[in-house]
């Protein structure tokens, strides 16, 4: 068999036809493109929303806005300054039961997710779809913290994306425990409370460690909507929220069913927020000092601990005595009429008012309206209660004021039945509570103002401060800021200047009319005594004790105005003083704390300690920023200080302040009254406490005839000091070694005449200044008659 050769064709071979894209390939490619585009889009969005987010590298040392707390000397919290009222606490001090309660209700998977809880999001979405409305959120604790620290609460897509990014980043730089600690210190619990420590104090008056499971569950339920779940607005709703938290704790295996039931059965004793601030004038005084030294940022956000000199028991006594004194003075001036008039046929008060009546106590001030006039009383409705106002308890109101002039605008109605009528709204105070009747007395909020300050002479510490009748009515601090003419309360400075120049309390001066020419306007000035009485030659002791103006002006002229001004500066007066003889009558305005500190020098053996209210200041870390180290320094001699103090003791013992003798311990002081009774003063005390008081209208009207320092200011001082002195030991004024006692003739101040029958008194002198001359006794014509009666042999 012969093989044939293979014939090659000249036509090239065609490649097999290409097969088209299968559908799955196209779908896969499209999906990849979509994913890539989506990734780029998401990446671009994340970059866009991330570029202006805050850096988180310092988050571990983040310092939230904290409360500056002010404490009294007896460690009582008296004031707080804050933007957000927050007490910072460490995670170790937050009890486990509170941590679990918060986690159970806010983010049960907190320790499992990376900041974003995808399972929680799906669960919340399904629950909301099933319920047909948004009933469950999906924000984790980390997201809530990111929102609170860095973002607003607006509900926008942009904000939500930023929140998610921040939450994820926060989980990268902080541990779970750090995040939870920040969260529990940052979030708002209502009633102005930020953070769990402040919330525990606000709602229960407790430290965190003392919280029960039930209380912890209640607090954990608040952050979702603090106002909505406030127990003071809707207790039942707040209770249901607490029970919901307890149920979630049981679901999370944090509680057994028995423990949940026990916690739910707990009685929650809430501390209703108070409206009164302790020592408001003093706290504001401290705030101003702090802001001036540390700035508002530190004071309102820095969490300072400020320890002050204020004694709260003395402060309460000061506020009570001051308010009572102004009310009594206001009543003496007269009644200004009813607050308003109402229709007595109006509907009865609501049950809320009736509930308030159940807690009436003696001393409460309330408004009420007259319903009926009885034989010897009025019936006054206070809330839903009908109270009894006896005529004797409103007799002061028969003096009716019709205008501001206390002398001219007065009408007196002796018929008490006609003073009030049904419908008149008046202020009353609960006087007595009987089983079937509440007895009240008629009151009137005073328009008079004034100030009170108490200092510890040896330290300069401010122990009490009242700057006005009502801080809510006027924040002007009259104890510190007001400058008023002190009248005779300035006189001890003049007499002390005389002692400093070598005179003694027994030195004599003429108390008689005198006329001075005023060089600046070529007019004459003629000072007068109170009541225009003249006393002739008087000792300086008696002149001060009885506040003789003429003797004081003559003494000022003798020692020199310039000398008195220099001495005043030495003992602490910083206000400008008039360089003329009117200074002798207290014509130059000074501050209450300023003049009271001068008396402290006299009562503290000539040593001056600058008045201060701050003992120490610490920052939020406990570092001491300020520590008071003020020491009393001698500014005048002990002898001068004791002589003027001893003279002021006589003001109390036999002079214008005799009402203070009832204090029952050695005290020294001086009254002060200005022209036309515009200001009334009393300043005085003992070696361990001195207090100053002035009262007067802000518009400088007269307080009324006879409203002198002894009548208007001294009773306030007595009431305050009787309470303030109780815990303090009785301390006598120390007699310096440089003071000596000498018998002198009180009419001349010279050594007594040794002749029998000559009146004498023991007087004080600085050693070396004692008199050396004896009084030359004048012979009376009667003496010659007596001489003739002597038997001849006896001569």
In short:
This protein is α+β, with helices and mostly antiparallel strands and about 800 residues long.
Primary descriptors:
795 residues; 5-stranded mixed beta barrel; 5-stranded mixed sheet; 22 helices; alpha+beta
- What percentage of residues falls in helices of 4 or more residues? 25-40%
**Which residues form runs of ≥5 with pLDDT under 50?**
349-357, 782-788
How large is the count of helical segments?
22
Radius of gyration: 41 Å
Kindly name the structural category: alpha+beta
Main beta sheet strand tally, sense and closure: 5 strands, mixed
Strand content: 15-25%
Q: Multimeric state of these chains?
A: single chain
Average predicted confidence as pLDDT: 86
Cα-to-Cα separation, first versus last residue:
210 Å
Q: Could you give the order of strands across the largest sheet?
A: 2-1-6-24-25
Anisotropy-based shape = elongated
Q: Total number of β-strand segments?
A: 31
What do you see in this structure?
The chain is an alpha+beta fold and 795 residues long. The chain contains 22 helices and 31 strands. α2 packs across α9 (235-251). Residues 349-357 and 782-788 have low confidence and may be disordered.
């Amino acid at each position: 068999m012969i093989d044939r050769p293979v014939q090659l064709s000249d036509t090239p071979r065609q490649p097999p036809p290409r097969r088209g894209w299968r559908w799955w390939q196209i779908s896969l490619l499209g999906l990849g493109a979509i994913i890539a585009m989506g990734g780029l889009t998401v990446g671009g969005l994340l970059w866009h929303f991330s570029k202006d987010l805050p850096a988180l590298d310092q988050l571990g040392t983040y310092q939230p806005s904290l409360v500056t707390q002010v404490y009294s000397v007896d460690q009582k919290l008296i004031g707080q300054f804050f933007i957000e009222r927050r007490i910072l606490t460490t995670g170790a001090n937050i009890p486990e039961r509170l941590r679990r309660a918060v986690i159970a209700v806010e983010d049960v998977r907190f320790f499992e997710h990376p900041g974003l809880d995808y399972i929680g999001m799906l669960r919340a979405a399904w629950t909301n779809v099933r319920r047909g409305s948004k009933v469950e959120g999906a924000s984790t604790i980390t997201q809530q913290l990111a929102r609170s620290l860095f973002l607003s609460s607006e509900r926008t897509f942009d904000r939500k994306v930023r929140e998610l990014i921040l939450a994820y980043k926060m989980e990268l730089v902080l541990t779970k425990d750090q995040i939870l600690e920040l969260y529990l210190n940052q979030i708002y619990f209502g009633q102005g409370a930020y953070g769990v420590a402040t919330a525990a104090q606000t709602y229960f008056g407790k430290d965190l460690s003392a919280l029960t499971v039930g209380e912890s569950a209640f607090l954990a339920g608040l952050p979702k909507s603090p106002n909505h779940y406030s127990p003071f607005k809707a207790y039942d709703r707040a209770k249901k929220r607490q029970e919901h938290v307890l149920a979630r704790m049981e679901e999370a295996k944090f509680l057994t069913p028995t423990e949940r039931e026990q916690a739910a059965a707990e009685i929650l004793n809430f501390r209703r927020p108070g409206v009164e601030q302790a020592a408001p004038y003093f706290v504001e005084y401290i705030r101003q000092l702090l802001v001036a030294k540390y700035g508002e940022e530190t004071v309102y956000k820095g969490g300072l601990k400020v320890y002050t000199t204020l004694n709260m028991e003395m402060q309460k006594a000061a506020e009570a005595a001051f308010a009572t004194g102004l009310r009594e003075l206001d009543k003496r001036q007269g009644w200004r009429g009813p607050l308003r008039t109402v229709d007595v046929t109006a509907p009865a008060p609501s049950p809320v008012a009736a509930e308030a009546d159940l807690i009436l106590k003696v001393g409460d001030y309330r408004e009420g309206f007259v319903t009926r006039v009885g034989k010897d009383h009025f019936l006054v409705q206070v809330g839903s209660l009908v109270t009894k106002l006896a005529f004797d308890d409103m007799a002061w109101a028969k003096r009716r004021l019709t205008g501001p002039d206390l002398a001219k605008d007065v009408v007196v109605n002796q018929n008490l039945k006609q003073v009030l009528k049904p419908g008149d709204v008046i202020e009353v105070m609960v006087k007595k509570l009987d089983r079937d009747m509440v007895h009240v007395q008629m009151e009137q909020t005073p328009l008079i103002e004034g100030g009170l300050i108490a200092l510890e002479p040896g330290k300069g510490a401010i122990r009490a401060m009242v700057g006005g009748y009502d801080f809510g009515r006027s924040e002007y601090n009259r104890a510190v800021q007001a400058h008023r003419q002190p009248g005779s309360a300035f006189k001890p400075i003049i007499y002390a200047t005389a002692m400093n120049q070598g005179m003694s309390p027994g030195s004599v001066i003429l108390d008689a009319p005198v006329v001075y020419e005023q060089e600046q306007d070529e007019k004459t000035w003629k000072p007068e005594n109170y009541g225009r009485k003249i006393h002739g030659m008087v000792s300086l002791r008696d002149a001060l004790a009885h506040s003789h103006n003429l003797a004081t002006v003559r003494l000022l002229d003798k020692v020199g105005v310039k000398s008195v001004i220099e001495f005043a500066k030495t003992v602490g007066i910083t206000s400008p003083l008039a360089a003329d003889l009117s200074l002798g009558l207290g014509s130059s305005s000074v501050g209450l704390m300023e003049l009271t500190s001068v008396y402290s020098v006299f009562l503290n053996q000539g040593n001056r300690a600058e008045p201060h209210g701050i003992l120490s200041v610490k920052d939020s870390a406990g570092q001491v920023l300020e520590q008071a180290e003020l020491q009393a320094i001698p500014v005048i001699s002990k002898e001068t200080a004791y002589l003027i103090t001893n003279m002021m003791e006589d003001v109390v013992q036999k002079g214008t302040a005799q009402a203070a003798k009832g204090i029952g311990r050695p005290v020294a002081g001086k009254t002060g009254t200005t022209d036309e009774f515009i200001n009334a003063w009393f300043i005085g005390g003992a070696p361990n406490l001195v207090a100053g008081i002035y009262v007067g209208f802000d518009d400088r009207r007269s307080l009324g005839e006879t409203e002198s320092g002894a009548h208007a200011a001294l009773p306030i001082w007595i009431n305050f000091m009787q309470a303030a002195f109780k815990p303090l030991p009785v301390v006598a004024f120390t007699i310096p070694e440089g003071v000596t006692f000498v018998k002198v003739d009180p009419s001349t101040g010279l050594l007594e005449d040794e002749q029998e029958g000559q009146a004498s008194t023991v007087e004080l002198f600085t050693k070396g200044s004692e008199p050396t001359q004896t009084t030359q006794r004048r012979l009376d014509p009667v003496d010659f008659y007596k001489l003739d009666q002597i038997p001849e042999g006896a001569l």
